[in-house]
């Protein structure tokens, strides 16, 4: 019997909160978006509580924990404040991401190799609390080695540069894809669970979904934007179908 190579889809609801926060009220509600994601077949919900609370706010995390049964992937900066929140909220997973106040979105991956001493106690403390720890890193073998050294069981490879390369040239797009493929195989070979995400769209998802060692994709911004035109349920289902198409083609070849 062929065992299907599982590829989970986590839906990031941050940018529902971005729209809400432009008016300061309660609409649109990221928790309602998470409920639509559940019914559209998502495998998990991702939310990034930025230190400046520009989109997701603390009560969103509390409500996601209380109202959504799917695993929550809590994205956070490597700060004491965020570790305390994670320990209180007990999400299924924490993904430690780099943050800069002035950035428009998460630029580049976490410099795990350069911050081993800072990250080590957090990874240990979160892991000891039963929270799966992931590091959001660039597709770079040095950062993967650092994740292994830290004992983080998961890495999420930043696909932002890869996604931007589609507008540059076919050669650049293939170069960035190959970089992610190499890092994914390298990390999986060292025993890490490999995830990927950031900036993925209908046009960029299939080559990433076709990398068989990748276990989870986290996608948000494009799906929320596309939902303006087709609705969130349909945007998620279309993404899921593209992922399945790519993964099934790989499974059929193996
Ligand atoms: C780490 C990451 O990739 C996500 O948090 C996502 O991109 C949404 O958040 P921002 O747009 O605030 O970076
Ligand atoms: N970690 C990546 C993520 O959660 C979603 O990123 P994006 O699709 O909103 O760019």
UniProtKB/TrEMBL annotation:
Its EC number(s): 2.6.99.2
GO molecular function: pyridoxine 5'-phosphate synthase activity
Tagged with keyword Cytoplasm: yes
Main location (coarse class): cytoplasm
Residues with site note (Transition state stabilizer): 156
UniProt subcellular location: Cytoplasm
Any one Gene Ontology BP term: pyridoxine biosynthetic process
GO annotations of cellular component type: cytosol
UniProt keyword annotation of Transferase present: yes
Record-listed 3-amino-2-oxopropyl phosphate binding positions: 12, 23, 199, 220-221
Keywords for the protein's UniProt record, in alphabetical order: Cytoplasm, Pyridoxine biosynthesis, Transferase
InterPro entries from the UniProt entry: Aldolase_TIM, PyrdxlP_synth_PdxJ, Pyridoxine-5'_phos_synth
Active site (record annotation): 48, 75, 198
Catalysis performed (reactions): 3-amino-2-oxopropyl phosphate + 1-deoxy-D-xylulose 5-phosphate = pyridoxine 5'-phosphate + phosphate + 2 H2O + H(+)
Pathway: Cofactor biosynthesis; pyridoxine 5'-phosphate biosynthesis; pyridoxine 5'-phosphate from D-erythrose 4-phosphate: step 5/5
Binding site for 1-deoxy-D-xylulose 5-phosphate: 14-15, 50, 55, 105
Annotated function: Catalyzes the complicated ring closure reaction between the two acyclic compounds 1-deoxy-D-xylulose-5-phosphate (DXP) and 3-amino-2-oxopropyl phosphate (1-amino-acetone-3-phosphate or AAP) to form pyridoxine 5'-phosphate (PNP) and inorganic phosphate.
PANTHER family, A to Z: PYRIDOXINE 5'-PHOSPHATE SYNTHASE
Family: Belongs to the PNP synthase family.
Alphabetized HAMAP family for the sequence: PdxJ
Oligomer and partners: Homooctamer; tetramer of dimers.
Designated name of the protein: Pyridoxine 5'-phosphate synthase
Source organism (scientific name): Kaistia nematophila
